[in-house]
Hints:
With about 100 residues, the chain is mainly beta. It has one helix at about 90-95; strands at about 15, 25, 50, 55-60. It has one helix and four strands.
Amino acid sequence: MCKDAIVFNNKPKGVTLDAWIPYYICTCGKSEGGVFCDGKHKGSSCLPKKVTVEKTKQYLICMCKSSKNFPFCDATHSIYKDEDVGKLVKYEEDAE
């Protein structure tokens, strides 16, 4: 998890990923659309997450940038309110 990441959204996004195609998922929360890296992480400690799936289907992508199973949603977004969107991600010690 990137210490400079911001919450892009407090809900996941369903995205169809094709099998065996490498994708680079945004970890910083600053990329256009919030899912795929577009280089806006430059100057931060964030790097995109390379992902390849074994099955073509729709996946729930973490948009809060806090999932322990990143880039896939694990419902961590439930700790964020609407007013948290655009702010730094919380860490376990911050969320309590």
